[in-house]
Amino acid sequence: MSNVLVTEEKLSNFINGEWVSVTRQEYAPVMNPANGDKILDVPLSTKEDVDRAVEAAKKAQKEWALVPAPQRAEILFQVGYLMKERKEHLSQILTMENGKVLEEARGEVQEGIDMAFYMAGEGRRLFGHTTPAELKDKYAMSQRVPVGVVGIITPWNFPIAIATWKSFPAIVAGNAVIWKPATETPMMAYEMAKIFEEAGLPKGVVNVVFGSGSEVGDAMVEHRDIRVISFTGSNDVGRSIASKCGQMLKKVSLEMGGKNAVIVMDDADLDLAVQGIVWSAFGTSGQRCTACSRVIVHEDIKERLEERLLAEMENITIGDGLDETNQMGPIINEAGLRKIEKYMQVGQEEGAKLLAGGYSLKDEKFGKGFYFAPTVFTNVTPDMRVAQEEIFGPVLSIIPVSSLDEAIEVNNNVAYGLSSSVFTQDVNKVFKAQRDLDTGIVYVNAGTTGAEIHLPFGGTKGTGNGHRDSGQAALDVFTEWKAVYVDFSGKLQRAQIDVE
Ligand code: UN1
């Protein structure tokens, strides 16, 4: 126990409204990445635990689907109020287990609160359609219906916000949820389960099963009665989930990262562009799917931009996120740190020039925490690995271009398509860029992060598989369309045949 915020020593699964111990007594330690201290133990559940959760969820879902959607929404409003009441508590625990600085943790919790109220509103807006029928005295309509039991697999980098993007639409639409949070950040799931319980969500509608992707995640993907898998995480894992779900004809929604760029044209407000770059590249230590990891800059202003960027980076304070003077926290764990370090070598071997950073931070102040210096590579060409692969750390690559057309081409020529941004004051360039940038999210005169929850979140190409989190689009993941025909003619009318 490292902090008064966390009094538990071991977590249990939350199944059918009860905290139940796991079928096998195996646990993994959860570490605070800011100082390497152990926070508590998280269970490593088995397939049997998943089976138990699915049995409970199946029963609960049948009842839950019959509760009118506005009443289901009432409970989500309650969830929102409780999250709001506990915002500071949730934020501090989030900082402890994830490392992001407190200000950003508060922002993430706020994103979850916003999602609760937004999706609760959808409970009165689960619109279907009425459509003129082909035949006389016949009524035709289509409506959204819940899919059944759905599985959500959530990442450590936004352990509460992303869970709300997935679970809230699932709940309001009448599904029951099996939730596997990342083992690095289980406390947010524990806290949310308590909130669901207190808000009056019926037992079994949300079940939390802690454990690894290879055991719990696989068991969820392979379970016949889990009808949807919604996953945010790495590309490799996402692809393997997609192929297994493909074989089973199971609906799957994926969000698997980005290689997001800020484009800075020669007419841009440079100070604003630098602020946007610093915030979206080094905020959350670059560990956002939406983080900016490329700056595509007009060659005429490249040097000026680099000078101002380096000056601005001097001001970044790094350390434990619970200390509010720090602006950048640690990397999630040792593996994350090693991956970033590896790219330092890769970049330099490819011929990129290190302009700032490039090393892990190790001295007394950082203790056993996992910190990496904000890093900039320059003279990067678009095909280098540092300009193509997701590094998931505070590492920027600067790529010079000579026109907007070239900038757009460079932006689009990567395997991912999540977020992009353009800084310019020319309205023609704005409209051209927003049309031609091949990403699911485009920003004008802002960095690549900061998506709002009532808009669709997701991307093109290797970022996903066409589905979206949050916004109204999330309802498409967690509902099926049902077409209903009511014939009140009193005789057999044969569609397509009896039409005059
Ligand atoms: C993520 O990085 O996976 O747009 C989510 C943003 C945040 C969410 C990021 N609202 O940066």
Outline the secondary-structure elements:
Elements: E1 13-15, E2 18-20, E3 27-31, E4 38-43, H1 47-64, H2 69-85, H3 87-98, H4 102-122, E5 129-132, E6 138-146, E7 149-153, H5 161-172, E8 176-180, H6 187-199, E9 206-208, H7 213-222, E10 226-232, H8 235-248, E11 251-255, E12 260-264, H9 270-282, E13 292-298, H10 302-313, H11 334-350, E14 353-356, E15 360-361, E16 371-372, E17 375-378, E18 395-401, H12 404-412, E19 416-417, E20 419-423, H13 427-436, E21 441-444, E22 460-461, H14 474-478, E23 479-487
Parallel strand pairs: 7-8, 7-10, 8-9, 10-11, 12-13, 12-20, 13-18, 17-18, 20-21
Antiparallel strand pairs: 1-2, 3-4, 5-6, 6-23, 14-17, 15-16, 19-22
Helix pairs in contact: 1-7, 2-4, 2-6, 3-4, 4-5, 9-10
The structure holds 2-aminohexanedioic acid (UN1).
Please characterize this protein's 3D structure.
Keywords: NAD, Oxidoreductase. Residues 19-484 form the Aldehyde dehydrogenase domain. InterPro entries: Ald_DH/histidinol_DH, Ald_DH_C, Ald_DH_CS_CYS, Ald_DH_CS_GLU, Ald_DH_N, Aldehyde_DH_dom, ALDH7A1-like. This is 3-sulfolactaldehyde dehydrogenase. The active site is at residue 255. With 500 residues, this protein is α/β, with parallel strands linked by helices. It has two domains: 2-256 and 464-483, Aldehyde Dehydrogenase, Chain A, domain 1 (3-Layer(aba) Sandwich); 260-444, Aldehyde Dehydrogenase, Chain A, domain 2 (3-Layer(aba) Sandwich), CATH 3.40.309. The protein is built from 14 helices and 23 strands. A seven-stranded mixed beta sheet has the order 14-17-18-13-12-20-21, with helices on both faces. The protein has a five-stranded parallel beta sheet with strand order 9-8-7-10-11, with helices on both faces. Strand 3 (27-31) and strand 4 form a beta hairpin. Helix 4 (102-122) runs parallel beside helix 5. It is globular and about 80 Å long. Residues 111, 157-158, 288-290, 449-451 line the site of 2-aminohexanedioic acid.
